[in-house]
Specification:
This protein has about 400 residues and is an alpha/beta fold. The chain has helices at about 10-20, 35-40, 50-60, 70-75, 100-110, 125-140, 160-165, 175-185, 200-230, 235-240, 260-275, 280-305, 330-340, 365-370; strands at about 5, 25-30, 65-70, 80-85, 115-120, 145-150, 170-175, 195, 315, 345-350, 375, 395. Helix 5 (about 100-110) packs parallel to helix 6. It starts with a strand and ends in a 7-residue tail after the last strand.
């Protein structure tokens, strides 16, 4: 088994560290936030992800999982180092690689043995080459360093399941020996492994996410057409999904995609298309359609009140961008709250996990009973049994219409 360091304890880094420790490796996760590290050392996850806390505690107790702010010690003791830092979207739409570059420098300045560096973060095509060049430029010891691409394919709310029962593992390497070492590392998961060069591995991640985003935007536009023509989009989606060339996954109509991946990754690959004079017009239009879906939903609310929301109490069920997570990044709820309050409405919201927004109430009864209308924004399973008058419900996820 390997001694592994993981730089970054965000969603990807933390889940990766926990899973690699679960299959027998010794893993040290590194973060510069001292308070966050103290919380992690107690076996408490700063993110909501079903099953994660239990696995953390199990592997901390087994002395296989550690958390530290000490780059020098953690990197010196590891023969495999994962980079799992954030790549936020810049104003231009391109991925901001500031944290990636810093991680590469930290590795170069602290390793004392031959090392394989695995880039787990979602990065533009060519970033692994950049990481390799930065490490070689700043390396202070005469050690061999190979850089391998290993993009993640985790769904928030299902990350543990996706790791152990996922569709595939992608490994991109220029050095076959390094690629095979990482393949061996993941062998206990018994998942199909795709081995390719680094640039192809980087592209697989962006291309997959962009395709799924296009699929979501497509079914949302079909839903709008169905509504205009008195057709049932859920029946349409089921009929389409039985075609094995299409599949039923990601054909759930609603308020569009959100979260940390699809919005950022579609913008990033669209930016690459423009930069390389190979525009991805389908992806560009999917991005526009996704945002337009929220505007269409807002307009339905405005129409209901003849454009006057002043003093109206709007109930909201669900805040996270999807169920089984507490992630509010690019969540439709955030846009809707801002736009509703801007127009004078009072928003009361209930979410099973998100509790920190000023609009939050303690129980869904407060939303249903004390509001002029109720917006269903996130399809949490516990909402399925709620009884809401049809003339009061705006089901943004087609969840209670089945």
């Amino acid at each position: 088994m390997s001694n592994i360091a993981i730089i970054g304890t965000g969603y990807v880094g933390l889940v990766t560290g926990v899973v690699l420790s679960e299959i027998g490796n010794t893993v040290t996760c590194i973060d510069i936030d001292e308070n966050k590290v103290r919380i992690l050392q107690r076996g408490q996850s700063p993110i909501y992800e079903p099953g994660l806390d239990e696995l953390m505690v199990k592997n901390i107790d087994a002395k296989r999982l550690f958390f530290t702010t000490n780059h020098k010690e953690a990197l010196a003791n590891s023969n495999i180092i994962f980079i799992a830092v954030g790549t936020p979207q810049s104003e231009s739409g391109a991925a901001d690689l500031t944290y990636i570059k810093q991680a590469a420098k930290d590795i170069a300045l602290n390793i004392v043995k031959d090392t394989i560096v695995v880039v787990k973060s979602t990065v533009p095509v060519g970033t692994n080459d950049l990481v390799e060049s930065i490490i070689k430029e700043h390396l202070i010891t005469n050690r061999k360093v190979d850089v391998v691409s290993n993009p993640e394919f985790l769904r928030e709310g299902h990350a543990i399941q996706d790791t152990f029962y996922g569709d595939r593992i992608v490994i991109g390497a220029e050095n076959n020996e390094a690629g095979n070492t990482i393949k061996k590392l993941f062998k206990p998961l018994n998942l199909p492994i795709v081995q390719t060069n680094r640039r192809s591995a980087e592209m697989i991640k962006y291309a997959a996410n962009a395709f799924l985003a296009v699929k979501i935007s497509y079914i949302n536009e079909i839903a709008n057409l169905c509504e205009a023509m008195d057709a049932n989009v859920l029946d349409v989606a089921d009929g389409m999904g039985l075609d094995h060339r299409i599949g039923r996954a990601f054909l759930n109509p609603g308020l569009g995609y959100g979260g940390s991946c699809f919005p950022k990754d579609t913008e990033a690959i669209a930016y690459l298309g423009r930069e390389y004079c190979a525009p991805l017009t389908i992806v560009e239009n999917a991005i526009k359609a996704n945002f337009r879906q929220r505007e269409i939903f807002l307009q339905k609310v405005l129409n209901y009140f003849d454009g006057n929301l002043e003093g109206k109490i709007i109930g909201m069920l669900g805040l996270s961008f999807k169920p089984n997570t507490d992630d509010l990044r690019e969540a439709p709820s955030v846009y809707l709250i801002e736009e509703l309050e801007k127009r004078g409405a009072i928003v009361k919201a209930y979410d099973p996990v998100v509790k920190h927004l000023p609009q939050c109430v303690e129980h869904f009864d407060e939303v249903i009973n004390n509001s002029n209308i109720v917006l269903l924004v996130t399809e949490w399973e516990e909402f399925k049994s709620l009884e809401i008058p049809a003339n009061k419900l705006f089901d943004g996820r087609y969840f209670l219409k089945k």
